[in-house]
From TrEMBL:
GO terms for molecular function: DNA binding; DNA-binding transcription factor activity. The lineage of its organism: Bacteria, Bacillati, Bacillota, Bacilli, Bacillales. It comes from Paenibacillus agaridevorans. This is CBS domain-containing protein. SUPFAM superfamilies: CBS-domain pair (SSF54631), HprK N-terminal domain-like (SSF75138), Thioesterase/thiol ester dehydrase-isomerase (SSF54637), Winged helix' DNA-binding domain (SSF46785). Keywords: CBS domain, DNA-binding, Transcription, Transcription regulation. InterPro entries: CBS_dom (IPR000644), CBS_dom_sf (IPR046342), Diverse_CBS-Domain (IPR051257), DRTGG (IPR010766), HotDog_dom_sf (IPR029069), Ser_kin/Pase_Hpr-like_N_sf (IPR028979), Thioestr_dom (IPR006683), Tscrpt_reg_HTH_GntR (IPR000524). Residues 205-262, 264-322 form the CBS domain.
Length: 449
């Protein structure tokens, strides 16, 4: 009797998820409406909504509500949807809610005559304009969304046309310049995010992983090992949740009829699909894990990733062209490499200027920025000499004296210890007066082989 409520809840949960999946993209939904339609409690629907949002089936936005969406594709991450623009600029939706999930490829500022403006507008674009009804109408007729600035509201005619076309009409209290700046910043951030690789980018979740079911014995483990050539598998319960890991080491010395549940490692380390590949690599290296299960919020298995796949992905990502500069990229962009090959020991150093943007509260170079430059120099040296990268473990910085703005500095990283797994470096920052800062850095190497 005790298991009955759990089974009923599970069935209702699945019904709610199936109901959401069956809705047309762009449909607005609410907890109360779904609960009434399916005859379930609002609490059960709320939990399902949270899972649907994390799975990319719905999106909940302020002033808009919860909307059925398509799963976001990482390869199109740099393209904002109209719904995301509405959230960024704190806009209110007046019409065309069915088009919130559509992507926009550009935005046009309507600060010109109507005829000239229309030559820039095409399907999938967004017109940012004030209270110009004729421009609103023409944009919608050409397949573009409309964002009205200054807090103005669209006319009833424009709202009706937006609903007919399935194109959103939004209104924001911000002025045109502010709105354009906010959208441009968001697009630039998307370019940066696109080069950050996640586990979901490298794992094919549609391909079933090799697993052992709870209740199996070691003869099943040995048989699966012979069939696949692998020696470690996740152990799943009857609901597909990861409850353990079984390896050849765990099975060693036990009879074939021994239960897997008795020898497996319980509560294994797992990862979510939106974890970065770098984070997964650090976890696997630190914990000595060669196979990492990827699970959803309920610990249901989505797939597995090996340490080899993670390291291969990191090397591939490192070879890709930069798309969007981070603050670290911008800091380091003014530094150039120089090598010393004279009578002293050959070494690599980096020269550059401390610009006004690098200043701190006291008008000198920010201490945090100096530390960042030292770490960037160390990373660049490792990449240049060893064709490798590292994960920082610790860094201790010493500031001998302030570094003046507009001064030329030389950063000299020196390897004190460099092995296949670990590195220890000493980094110095010198200006015209000599030593200005120094750091000791220890890191875990990312093995390229």
């Amino acid at each position: 009797m005790a298991s009955t409520p759990s089974n009923v809840t599970s069935t209702k949960h699945e019904q709610i998820m199936q109901h959401i999946q069956g809705l047309k993209v762009g449909t607005k939904i609410s907890v109360r409406a779904v609960a009434k339609h399916l005859g379930v409690s609002e609490g059960t629907v709320y939990k399902a909504f949270k899972e649907a949002e994390s799975s990319g089936l719905v999106s909940t936005k302020e002033r808009i509500g919860t909307v059925r969406i398509d799963r976001k594709r990482r390869e199109a991450l740099d393209q904002l949807t109209f719904g995301e623009v509405a959230e960024i600029v704190e806009a209110r939706l007046f019409g065309g809610g069915d088009g919130l999930d559509k992507s926009l490829h550009k935005f046009v500022i309507g600060a010109m005559e109507l005829e000239a403006m229309m030559s820039y507008i095409d399907s999938g674009s967004l017109l940012i304009v004030g209270n110009r009804v004729s421009a609103h109408r023409c944009a919608l007729e050409q397949g573009a969304g409309v964002l009205i600035t200054g807090g103005f509201e669209p006319s009833a005619e424009i709202v009706r046309l937006a609903d007919e076309q399935g194109l959103p009409v939004l209104s924001s209290r911000h002025d045109t310049f502010t709105v354009a700046s906010m959208i441009n910043r968001a697009m630039f951030d998307r370019l940066i995010k696109r080069k950050i690789m996640l586990l979901e980018d490298i794992v094919t979740f549609s391909k079933p992983a090799d697993v052992i079911k709870s209740g199996s014995n070691l003869s099943d483990f040995h048989r699966l090992s012979r069939e696949t050539g692998n020696f470690r598998f996740p152990v799943l319960d009857d609901r597909g949740r990861v409850i353990g890991m079984i390896t050849a080491m765990d099975a060693m010395g036990s009879a074939d009829d021994a239960a897997v549940d008795r020898v497996m490692t319980r509560h294994p380390i797992t990862a979510a699909p939106n974890i970065t590949v770098t984070s997964a690599a650090h976890t696997m290296a630190a914990e000595g894990i060669d196979l990492l299960p990827i699970v959803d919020r309920n610990r249901k298995l989505l797939g597995v990733v090996t340490r080899r796949e993670v390291l291969d992905a990191m090397r591939f990502a490192g070879k890709q062209p930069e798309s969007g500069e981070t603050f670290e990229d911008l800091m380091w962009s003014g530094f150039i490499q120089s090598e010393s090959n004279g009578t002293e020991e050959a070494s690599i150093s980096y020269r550059g200027a401390i610009t006004p943007q690098m200043s701190g509260a006291l008008g000198m170079a920010s201490e945090g920025l100096v530390s960042t430059l030292m770490m960037q120099a160390a990373r660049q040296m490792i990449r240049e000499t060893g064709k490798r990268d590292f994960l920082l473990e610790s860094m201790t910085s010493y500031y001998v004296r302030p570094v003046q703005i507009d001064s030329e500095v030389t950063i000299k990283p020196k390897a004190m210890e460099l092995s296949r797994k670990f590195s220890k470096l000493e980094i110095e920052v010198l200006d015209a007066k000599g030593l200005a800062a120094k750091a000791m850095l220890t890191a875990q190497m990312i093995d390229p082989y």
